[in-house]
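[Meeting: bench + compute handoff]

Bench side (C.D.) handed over the final construct sequence. Compute side (W.E.) agreed to return the predicted structure before the next meeting so the bench team could plan truncations. Sequence as handed over:
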Amino acid sequence: MFNKIDIANMVFEGVSRSISIAPKFCSKIKHKSSPCIICYSLCPAEAVTIGGPGETIKVDWDKCTGCGICVSQCPAQVFRLRHGGDRKFIDNLSRSITSRGDLVITCSDNPAYSRQTAVVDCAGIFNVVDFIVLYLHGASRITIKYGLCMECPSKNGRQILEQEMNLQQQTRYIESLEGMQKEMRRFRHDFKNMMSGMYLQAKDGDLEAVQSFIQDMTADFDSQVGSQIRQLTQLGNIHMAEVKGLLLGKLDEMKKGQIGCEIEVLRPFYGTKMRVTDLCRCLGILIDNAMDEVRGQEKPMVSVLISVQDGCTTFRVKNRLYHAVDFHKIWTQGYSTHGQDRGIGLASYKKLLEGYDNALPFTSVENGYFIQELKVKE
């Protein structure tokens, strides 16, 4: 049975270590198909042990020399050198704990704080050990307030968010590949049966039936695997992690809602002069609007195009139109073709773009399709 002092001693022993570990970023821990064992293979002291999916990373601290090889070589940045002077750092934070046990911590880039708020360079540097120590100092409720991490000049918050997004993207990529592998196995099994039927048709000399059979077989393969391969190929042209993460999330959402999606990225896309957060919000609104229109319809489909050409990046979202649209009202908050308590997205979209002279929205209806375009001049 440990008392409070024993726990504090153990916790401070952990705080004094020069390297912190965030197992949630580890691809080996997150997914069974990951082959990564870089930290294990490069550690000169043989102090690192990696568990399987759902387990954790273990470090023998008696062997660890703190050389930092794991920190510099890990592609997911699971290992980090801890901020210097941990005890002093925690002591300074503890002075902001109120008499009720409340502690509010905010990064220096967030202007919304009071005199009783503890300000740090980056609110993303904390781990569970820090919170346990603060609890032992009397903080019964801890609130973390982040600023605009993706635009943080210190790059710490951006780095952490990029780690999260990269991990999510890796997981979704692996899940997509595993899904294609399963479909390939199923198609291979069906292929044997289909070829048996075609063999008899060919033997009887029915060439028309053979041609029809091959067309059906090709269409079946395309519907099972081909569309997924095309999606992954197009996503490979997107080199902006935030936009790729957004599209992967929307693809997953559409898959669950049984909505088809065509993605076309004509040239490598690296970014625009719009703020990252605003660009993702705008694209998210356009895609959500398209999904709402086709959801529940027969063969619902949303098309997304990204084109980079002549100093201009064009984002186009297209969907079949099933409701009459009043173009004089679509930018008005509260207007929607889908009932009450909706119609907020496009109004927010218009307001976001008011702050950009280089971003031009276009809306049109062509051959029964509702088309939203956003052109950003670079």
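W.E. noted at the follow-up: The mean pLDDT is 76. C.D. will use this when planning the next construct.
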